[in-house]
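hiii so my PI (J.) wants the whole complex modelled not just the main chain, which honestly fair. so below is everything: two entries, each one labled with what it is. i double checked the lines twice but i was tired so who knows lol
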Amino acid sequence: MNTNVRRYRVVHRTTYRYASPMTDGYTVAHLLPRDTLRQRVAESVVDVTPEPTERDEHVDVFGNRVTQFGMHHPHDELVVEAVSIVDVDDPMPIDTGESWNDVVARVDALRGDDALEIGPFRARTRFVDIDLVGADLAAIAYKSFTPGRTIAEAARDLCHRIFAEFTYDSTATDVSSPLADVLASRRGVCQDFAHLAAGCLRSIGLAARYVSGYIETTPPTGGDRVVGADASHAWCSIWTPSAGWIDFDPTNDHFPTRRHVTVAWGRDYADVTPVRGVVIGPSRAQTLDVAVDVMLV
Amino acid sequence: MSALDIGPAFDESTTWDAGLRTALLDGGQLASWQAQVDRLLVAEGAGHLVHDLPVRADGRAATVASRPWRLDPIPVVIDTETFQWLSSAVIERMEALEEVLRDLYGARQLVRDGVVPADVLHSSDRYRLAAVGSTHPARWLTTYAVDVVRCADGVWRVVQDFADAPPGIGYALLDRSVMSRTSAELLATAGIASLARFPGQLRRALAASSTESSPRTVLFSGGIDHPSYIDHSYLAVQLGVHLVEGADLVVRQRRVWLRTLDGLEPIDVVYRRLEDPDIDPLEAGAIRTPGAVGIPGLLLAARSGGITLANAHGAGVVEDTSLAPLWPAAARHLAGIELRLPQLDGDRPHLATTPLYDGSQTRPGEVVLRMFAVHDGRTGSVMPGGSGRVLAPGDSPSLPTACVAKDVWVIGTTLTPFIAAALPQVDFARSVPTRAADALYWMNRAGERAEAMARTIGAISSRMEQDPGLVSLDGGQWWIRTQAIARGVRRMRSPGHDDPAELTGDPPGELAQTTDAIALEIGILLTEATTVREYLSVTAGRVLERLSNTRAALQRRAAAVDDLDSLLADFAALAGLWNESTVRGPAWRLGDAGRRIERTLVVLDLVEFGFSTRPDRDDPVDAAVLEVILAANDSLVAYRRRHRSDVEPDAAFALLVRDSTNPRSVAASIERFGQHAADAEWSEGIAIAAAARDALSLPRGELVPSVRGLIVDAATKLNARWFAAPVSPIVVVGR
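here's the output for the full assembly
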């Protein structure tokens, strides 16, 4: 087992600079990785500069770790640096026995704890608006989810088709782009493709999470260059009765994920935004700089 | 479908007794009632659904369109028996929804058992994830409202629930207060239930929502730009709690604090009138309703028990239309309650009608009835009245488009006399929110400036009327210098303001520009006054209403002498009320300091722009100009009484500037400002007042710029020390 564990050290630094000082600031961050069935967090800390006036930590409804802090003195710069050491197991072999149609029926009938753990991830949300663009999403999904096909096979095919049919383009969208833009331009970034995959799955009745985290920066010798390593990354996770949640990365055509560190999951990006804040002060220019480094140690 | 298909149309008034029919439906009386009701509503600032004051002191324009709002002089009448049945059904519904909320944010048995599907629940942006599993609030629903209709089949049905920030209690109380003035006799003799107990019941319910024994409570409004601002401000006055906006409150150490003149004061209960998604901009999915500015960190404080929100954050999920059809099953599942009031569903129903007055006659119309309930954890109480909304033909009952309200009378009751509960009230004389002081300060400055402009232009106009030759006196010298005065008092301190080559305006043009400037200042005064109604007397409200009407007239045409006279009378009334009917305390002190600062600047403007730099004792122009200045400062009579001679510059200057026995002089204003600074133990203000007093002995040429510099500095320092206006929060996101 030990030979199949990779240890990563992740540094995620977010820097805000304000043209004139802000008198007050409040920040909420999803930056501390959580333990999962496949990963254990050895060490994790969020450093804030300048020193915040107050600080809180809590766990949200999905079990993610949330850091909240207040900076109640004038500041023209805010640096939030998260450093984590995380052990990640290789993925388990996937049993591909069940047909996706059976899974939809199972999801429909979920009760008890399962209803609470899985049901929320069939929701329509702002970024995964399966009411607004549900027909378009289902049309994409049904090309992979043909009747009776096993769920893992169909999902692997969907993952590959998003990778092949959509172009990675960091200029095409921004953090608030709706799926309609991505569908129209066939372009986007990891966040868009994670929403797209989740939307396709939810539009046909399956449960899918949006997962926020990182992907290994340095590829193993001979490996493919990965995309999205210089920033935080996002991917999708599909629920199956036999294998539980299977993470896959449509941006890099990984099914299941291999060199990924999970931070948090939710219905969409808004549930797990890495850093979100409110500042109070003059409405002047501000710059934002994000740097992520993921190293195998 | 014709009326025949559903049987004979049912009109409520058929159940009224003959006396009531005569009293309420008397055609002759209705027209005068309507006129009186209109006038009273306007006087309360409630003549519009969204009032339409255009400018704030900070220059920000109000953007929400306004619609005229009226109250039908004929109330909705409900007999006691019906009301008691309805109110027990409303309390039952409120208590059932309380159970539903407790479950949805707690054990979530409804989701586990499939009664409320998880995906539907989590698709609702009214279901607030931040509230799930938090330390349970004592109550989810402290207040609740429900819209009901009586259908043509006689059955009462629910149109919609209001569980987030149920709107309309303020309007309902306001409507009753208006009706009680037009129909006082009828209300007293016909056995109509009084609403007087309800504010106390609401206060008690709010107090019971906190673990503190006498919690400090504020009513959290979106401010003057919020569509329901009048509802909020009227209710705050009835409850005797501070009306606050987002910028008044701040979260520190998981607690909520009110910014006051004495620093931060802890708050225990926030009676929020903003809906869930508006209250904390830090929250995921936070949105901004126009006029809503939330409080960053509020939900962290609520989650950790540092503040009680009433209603609790998340209660709005009850209102989601995709979930509402599930509540009857949910109530049955959780508590075995069969809700007595059925939901209105499907097609537009046929409703029972009730008489409306349409301006010339009565006719049958349809009405939605909003009922209000409060709950203190043990007992629920329903307001024995409510708020009726008239439906325009074809309106969906959930979206009335006719802006006509109806008071609701519960008739035939014998209620026990109301004994007011002894709850601690906010001491307005002591605890003053910073923003309220800020508003009072600017209200007074705008009032003083508007008054000076009106008096100046009045002095000029009346002299020109008496002596049309003045305009061409000495090759137009009088008019050139008079123009300079008018511009000076309009604060047109631009290069060339004293250059005769620039002063080429004609009298009608100057009058029109000054009229515009007066209207602008009155606009600022009214806007600021609207946010601090609780500090002003009821009479002041009437005067403000008259100012508002005059302002509207001034926007249509240049001021006539009559307009100016009525304006000056209103300003005098306002100043009198300010001195005689306002509680003396920090708020009054800062407001008055604003008035003294502005008065000093006005006199300095008059002197700087009006006094000749080459005075000539025998110059007839000089004397005529000085008369304008003295009249503009309301000091001409004082001058005549004292000197009994032609107006002469040195004596005029002494009276306007140095004479502290003249209440309109610079000296008197500085003295009073200094007194306020001393009372507030504000050392910077005390020092500036002393320096300004010393500067009064300088020669005229040095005195004016020196005192002006000191007073402008005083205004800047006062702002920084006492107000330090907080800025709207800016949301930032990082990937």
